[in-house]
Amino acid sequence: MNNSILNKKLLGSLILAMALSACKSTPMADKPAAVEDKSPQTASQPTAPASDSTGADTAAANDSAVSGNPLTDPNNILSKRSIYFDFDKDTVKEEFRPLIEAHAKYLSEHGNAKVILQGNADERGTREYNLSLGQRRAVAVKKSLNLLSVKDQQIETVSFGEEKAAAGCADESCHQTNRRVDIVYEGE
Amino acid sequence: MNAETIAVEFLTSHVTLSQPMKKLFKLFQPLFLMLGLSVSTLVNAALEIEITGGGAQQIPIAIVPFAQAGVATQEKMSDIIAADLRRSGLFRVLETAGVASRPSELVQVKYPEWAVLQAQAITVGNITALPGNRLKVSFGLGDVLKQSTLVSMEYNIAPNQLRLTAHKIADEIYQKLTGEGPIFASRIAYISKVNKRYSLQIADADGVNPQTVVASNEPIISPAWSPDGTKIAYVSFEKKKPIIFVQSLTTGQRLTLASFKGNNSAPSWSPDGTKLAIVLSHSANSQVYTINADGTGLKQLIQSSAIDTEPVWSPDGRWIYFTSDRGGNPQIYKVSVLGGAAQRVTFQGDHNLSPRISADGKTLATVRRDGGRYSIAVQDLMSGQVQTLSQGGQDESPSFAPNGRVILYATRAAGRGALAAVSADGRVKQRLSESGGDIREPAWGPLLN
What is the pTM of this model? Predict the structure, then answer.
């Protein structure tokens, strides 16, 4: 892909975003978050892979939270699904609070929606312990959702331990991408 | 591709043990064993072995090719026996080509001929055909210095039992000359990952004859042998979550042992084979349960708000050792099978994980984390003394040989998973790798009948 096409695309989506924010009363605060999605926000939050859908087509299709799917709208925080953790920890960090609150709100408003929280660990340590650690992380996210009034019946927790981790990580920036809980909605 | 890629460093000089030396050897035998022992792992098409380090003292032994008039075999039994003994690190197998005589029974042995070779012991044997497609294998082990018989045995076997019989003969020699329990006539299980496909493999303890027990596009972990070696329990993610299966190695029949909500993992058999300890999460943290081998009678063993996992039975069946982070970091604890309070067992190392107990109940092996590196460590359960045995940095899944003298474990080599084995003192090490594959999660099975 050459630069001019990229620039046109970027320009197109910017214009569209401006138009959308102008005609809807969406708070501006939501929009920059979506734009920032393309660049690493913090050291501990790696960029989501291949979420390249800022193109005009996608944005146009999802221009309304009512007709489009907010769960997959890249401009919607609900499209963010990963919560990252520190080594051997299950503490849900403050920076992921908005993400969890958004999913809690969605689940509360959609009583039939169900999520599977998939816990993961980096490859360091034993496979069985990492399976338990991934589970504990999934449970930590579940508790956060429970505190925000999401019902137990809407949540299942499972762990893949280190089995889905990118193997052969040489440094922390690689390891940290593996220490996460992914929120997967039923039917996805 | 049957080439044996074994290189053993012999550190001893070629000296026959004289009588006083033998006495000395007897006296310091435990020490020699600790210095010298390693594991039996040979090569077939897929597996390659590299041995590093060497034993301090080795028994010189002559192994005369077995007579087998009119009997065709794929491998020479004497080669299998020699390879087993050589890899134990305790034996120096002598070149016998220069000796003209080829005795097949001890009565035919002219001991002075073998004394010239500085052999301390000599093994001879004979394979003959019996009616009904059976074979008779006889072997004898002689003491060259005393010119006397140490062992003499006969086996009536089917032709496909030749390898196993060779391992049994190697075990007889090993037991008689070292005083240690048998080790060679056993099998190992491990998980192989090739091109994103996972399979549970079982091979002879020397790495030969790998057989696929089950294969999947999703991960398989935690294979565990039933005490009688006829079944294997494992955790498969084939249904997109961890579920425990028990599979018969004789019929291939498979039982879903535990498929509860959440995770089902870490199976470990009770010594009598009637129960397993398993780990379930339901909707919360991993907790230890026991369940009958047929999937009935689920009971929670111990309740905590921490992670409790990796349960393993003590050989006397009275205790279950497990990993728990109830103290802040993962360490090993034990609890009575009747329940009650857990007692902490490990105190050295930032973390200790994956407890395994030797068959005599005396030694605990763990994965120990120190300064970010994971090693295999052993702890004497009586004295509490701890020794770190490996330096791989990413070592895990320790598994004792049936006689407890060797620990097989998973390591990484050249960016891929490989198996390694280490003697009790960490001196003799072997690495077992599969070309193009990633192997992990080894489990050493019981002795074969």
Answer: 0.81
